[in-house]
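Progress report, Aim 2. The chain analyzed during this reporting quarter is listed below.
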Amino acid sequence: MANTLTLIQAAEMLHICPETVVNHIRHHGLPAAKLGRSYTLIDDDVIEWVRTQYLNGKKQENASCASIGVDRALLGTSTSPSMASALSEALAPQKERRRRNMPPRLRVTSGGSSGSDKPRP
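Predicted structure tokens for the chain:
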């Protein structure tokens, strides 16, 4: 027979905090019922949901990238030296001229008349 769990019991079962359980309920499809002000979960449903999350992770590991149509490399595999250098060049910071956030330099004018030869009082 399936046992019901409170939010805190489900969090302890999954080894996560209760806020994360609520996030999974709202956004990731963790099955729960809101009875009054609190959520109630069934332990069998939680276990089944965790298993589907595990399977989804396995499927995503070998999935192809939709934006460029290329299969993703498996994590932990090595790349060739030419590929590594190409990746390093692509990921290197752009070498641009540094922008200066300063006011323009003022030119100093020497001597000359300023329009009046009278000394200032």
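The chain has a mean pLDDT of 76. Residues 80 and 86 are 10 Å apart (CA to CA). These observations will guide the mutagenesis work planned for the next reporting period.
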